[in-house]
């Protein structure tokens, strides 16, 4: 019986991960520590809230006392650190909270885990700290080449810099204390439960409300899209079989320009929902400051060492995703209303 402390489990990828793990394993226990910021939503976990293997603690990963309490009350085997401020646009407006949660929060988790796991000689058997990171720490690619685990870190936004800072602290705990850690660096995820400030759910939401579809710059920036369940599977594999201290890149060789994504969403909604939704909704707007041009992951290491490969082709994943948002319009309304609405409109009121 393994006990997982999952941080940020009420967010997009964290909630998908909790669903994935509870479906896959009978004999696990998951404690979800989440602050419930605007991006964290317990509705994402409604169907597991009564599962005896799952429990929720509302709290901040920066709070030493609360993290220590979890370790005192539970024999935590794995920390899976999803908790973060995750949106690049917000990081440009308010970098401080990104440094606080992403860097200091991660250090706090590392420190408590180290204190509970460290023995006279080394660390207790079977423990691991898995830090969920991003391909954005590598910066931006030109027209050719891919990010490899050996690519130097070169972040540009306050978000990616804070993630790079946290990655380096994880590395420091491995190098200095020999703490058992892994870092995963994944490309852009899409799928159910993604907060509609991110490109794909924002497009769907705006199409359904016949609002303009904001395309930053020339729309030719490239992202490497991966269906969220494939990311969850990779994390599970790295927890179980990843070599200690290693970084694993996760991506599905699925590069698309932003304008291609926009046109795909429009075409689906035009065909299946509302023929009045057309490319006339596209609105080219001012570019994101410091906008990275292209991301592309080389996933050879995780494929060769752990046998991971993405299972969901993009054409299937994007249809499944749009359909999920169409079937869950109440979810969309709920997460963008109430306290979320204030934050959302203050940032995105003009879109
Ligand atoms: P998200 O914004 O949807 O969710 C983040 C969660 O963390 C929320 O539930 C929020 O309430 C919680 N949180 C924020 N600050 C906290 C704090 N101080 N203490 C406790 N909880 C806090 O993010 P996501 O898209 O699910 O991303 C999860 C992780 O994966 C992040 O670390 C992100 O950097 C990384 N990642 C994301 C992507 C992507 O495409 N979304 C790709 C690669 C890596
Ligand atoms: O690459 C992994 C990263 O992917 C994660 O680490 C981040 O947490 C996650 O937010 C995501 O970052 P991006 O900045 O790539 O995602 P976003 O959905 O914000 O934007 C995707 C692309 O679409 C990007 O080039 C900016 C563009 N865009 C975005 C929005 C919200 C638009 O053109 N219009 C928009 O309204």
UniProtKB/TrEMBL annotation:
| Signal peptide, first to last residue | none
Q: Does the keyword NAD apply?
A: yes
Originating organism: Clostridium omnivorum
Catalytic reaction equation(s):
dTDP-alpha-D-glucose = dTDP-4-dehydro-6-deoxy-alpha-D-glucose + H2O
Write the gene name: spsJ_2
UniProt cross-references to InterPro entries, sorted A to Z? dTDP_Gluc_deHydtase, NAD(P)-bd_dom, NAD(P)-bd_dom_sf
Needs which cofactor? NAD(+)
Q: Keywords in alphabetical order, please.
A: Lyase, NAD
Name used for this protein in its record: dTDP-glucose 4,6-dehydratase
By sequence similarity, the record places it as follows: Belongs to the NAD(P)-dependent epimerase/dehydratase family. dTDP-glucose dehydratase subfamily.
Pfam families, alphabetized: GDP_Man_Dehyd (PF16363)
Q: Where is the NAD(P)-binding domain?
A: 5-321
User: E.C. number, please?
Assistant: 4.2.1.46
């Amino acid at each position: 019986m393994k006990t997982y402390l999952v941080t940020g489990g009420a967010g997009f990828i964290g909630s998908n991960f909790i669903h994935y793990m509870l479906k896959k394993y009978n004999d696990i226990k998951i404690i979800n520590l989440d602050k419930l910021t605007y991006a964290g939503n317990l509705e994402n976990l409604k169907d597991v809230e009564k599962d005896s293997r799952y429990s929720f603690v509302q709290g901040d990963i920066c709070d030493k006392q609360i993290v220590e309490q979890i370790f005192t009350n539970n024999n935590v085997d794995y920390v899976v650190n999803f908790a973060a401020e995750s949106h690049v646009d917000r990081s440009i407006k308010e970098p401080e909270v990104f440094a606080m949660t992403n860097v200091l929060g991660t250090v706090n988790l590392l420190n408590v885990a180290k204190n509970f796991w460290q023995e006279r000689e080394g660390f207790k058997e079977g423990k691991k700290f898995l830090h969920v990171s991003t391909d954005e720490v590598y910066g931006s690619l030109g027209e050719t080449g891919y990010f490899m685990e050996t690519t130097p870190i070169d972040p540009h936004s306050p978000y990616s810099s804070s993630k790079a800072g946290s990655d380096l602290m994880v590395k420091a705990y491995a190098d200095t204390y020999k703490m058992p850690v892994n870092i995963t660096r994944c490309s852009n995820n899409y799928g159910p439960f993604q907060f509609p400030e991110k490109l794909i759910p924002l497009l769907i939401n705006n199409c359904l409300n016949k609002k303009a579809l904001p395309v930053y710059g020339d729309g030719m920036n490239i992202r490497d899209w991966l269906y969220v369940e494939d990311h969850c599977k990779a994390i599970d594999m790295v927890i179980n079989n990843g070599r200690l201290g290693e970084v694993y890149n996760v991506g599905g060789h699925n590069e698309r320009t932003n304008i291609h994504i926009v046109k795909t969403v429009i075409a689906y909604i035009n065909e299946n929902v509302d023929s009045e939704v057309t490319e006339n909704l596209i609105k080219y707007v001012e570019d994101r400051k410091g906008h990275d041009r292209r991301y592309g992951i080389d996933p050879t290491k995780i494929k060769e060492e752990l046998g991971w490969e993405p299972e969901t082709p993009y054409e299937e994943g994007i249809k499944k995703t749009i359909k999920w948002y169409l079937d869950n319009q109440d979810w969309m309304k709920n997460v963008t209303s109430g306290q979320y609405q204030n934050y959302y409109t203050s940032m995105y009121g003009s879109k």
